[in-house]
Amino acid sequence: MKKILFTLAFAVMALGAFAQNIKTLPENITIKALDGHTVQTSAIQNDGKPIILSFWATWCKPCNRELNTIKEVYEEWQEETGVKLVAISIDDARSAAKVKPHVDGNGWEYEVYIDQNQDFKRAMNVVNVPHTFIINGKGEIVWEHTSFVEGSEEEVYEIVKKVAAGEPIE
Amino acid sequence: MKTRFLLLTLALSVLTITANAQSVLGGGQVSGNIQIDGQISRADSVIGSSDVPSKLLSNARADILYTNGAFSAGLRFEAYQKPMLGFAPEYEGQGIANYFASYQGERLSITAGNYYEQFGNGLILRTYEDRYLGLDNSLFGFNVAYRPVTGVTLKGVLGKQRFYWEKGAGLVRGIDGEVSLNDVIKAMAESKTRITLGAGFVSKYEDNNVTIISRVDDVEGVQYKLALPANVAAGSVRMDLSHGGWGLQAEYARKSQDPNKMNQYIYKPGEALFLSGSYSQKGFSANIQAKRVDNMGFRSERNPNDKTGQMLYINYVPAITKQHTYAFLSMYPYATQTTGEMGFQGDVMLKLKKETLLGGKYGTDIHINSAVITGLDTTITGGMGTNGYEASYCALGDLYYGDVSVEIARKLSKQSKLTCTYGYVVFNPITEGHAGHLHHNNVVVADYTYKINKKNVIRFEAEWMGSDSQYDKNVDDKRAGDWIMGLVEYNFTSAFFVSLSDQYAYNDGVGNYPSINLGYTKGATRLQVGYGKQREGIVCIGGVCRQVPASNGLTFSLTTSF
């Protein structure tokens, strides 16, 4: 019981201290590029333009639907807003070797990294995939959503357009 | 008491740093996630569910993470009051299950507390957690990573593993190095050929002052006591090579004498080999994998008091079968046999172009996958206290599992998409620890999605499984027989969904499993409520499986992250 109280107190204090909690991307978490070499999460950049950060896995059907659906409109989105989609695969040793073939086989033009040890996933508090974040030009996480159904890509794009134009998201 | 003190120190240091950070570095960030799952299940003699004395079962957890620049600290509160069906009863209770403080600099990372680490594919070391398996083998101690120059990573681990609410007895130490040749050799910087090499070493120490009698000689009345190694070592080497669309990954691991309960106290060294080759280009990919595992179960205790048999694994031997998502294709999932197996897998993905004869107006995706897993071909040479057996390198043993599946997905119009899947699965019950003949199953799935308009999407799924297995009261495997299933799911944007489904064993089996599920998602918060019957079965993630008993009643799950 004491432990619970303690945790709660700790959480409340911590939360209280940072009421205006602006979340940014963690910088020094190690992830792997598709060619096998490691990079730090600070490499996720888009020259001040918005980023869609999508956590997915090869075995996750809604994730694949999301990335395939966005594929159809990605070129258009890029031209209009300069947005970049960065797809973070959480596949573990069982399927990590299949990520590159999977990405190529689907013809995805996204920037893809593998978070095999799931350090990035934990740091971003991702519980289930798909989990999608939108990051503004300053590296701040301005929107997030879990799950995907056909049609919700349009919701994502509405936010991206606002972020690209520097408008607030309500 | 000790834990509380540690915790207090950790929290105080966090608060102190926070206070300083505010003036020096500017404010930090607090984030976290919460998940609460609950279940109310009632007895049903047909499906085999029983009444729950406490009525409500629930698993809950909250992760709270504080980050300030390179510094982070976090803790996880877990509560199992009482654990949900299928989770180990040892989890019952609540408290801080996991906590850590970490510095992640550009060159140096240090973590103290609970951490998750992996060397290569994990053949000698992988600590991870999976909340859906009720599995957490995190190491508690220190973890250091150092990157002296770009392209070189050195890692060290030291600690004891989590064992439910305790720590395992064994001490785990390990080091690992990885180098990306393209980063360190100037001449290779621009090369199309990318090479990464790595090697790791792990050692486990466990008190050997225990007596295990190997046999009693009846004639002489002499007892033979096993001389147990206190230290067990494992090492691995690995390579990741790619050239344009070509890729090759290999890892080989060996383990020294490690007599333990799982291998029945034999002294044969362990071995594992994992190979994966692939070729891909836009719209086409092929991948083949092979692995051989021999006596490679590596746990930080020789004989943990653990009914599920999942805890205290230091290493991870991945299953290389496809992780099927349709209900009947995953009805008989494959679990890695760390004591010995050989496996092969092939996977091909193909995109037929749009506006072609075969591809149709919008193009067609074809995905073919096949896997065969067998035991090793072994000759028994002795029992406990000896090397146990000899295993052939190339010959295959008994068939454990085989499957082939073909999935064809095609967009039919702007609004609709159809995916048809055929699968054939051969399953050996020995992999779940039961004797019995092989099951052969044919599965057909049709999955149709129709987008009514921008906001309303409806999905239908129909599955059929024909099996040569029949329900047998003595074995009581409720997966036996021929099955049909139907599912309708309606989505209102990504915010709301409702689905109705029924699985029915129409021939040679038992049970009818109707259920309804409702879900609501807003941002990173998701609430799901289900009511109905759930077949007893096996939940597998990455070849690690958990038995889930039948249930009949209400389930709910709330997840959120902030």
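qc> The first strand of chain A starts at residue 30 and ends at 33.
qc> done
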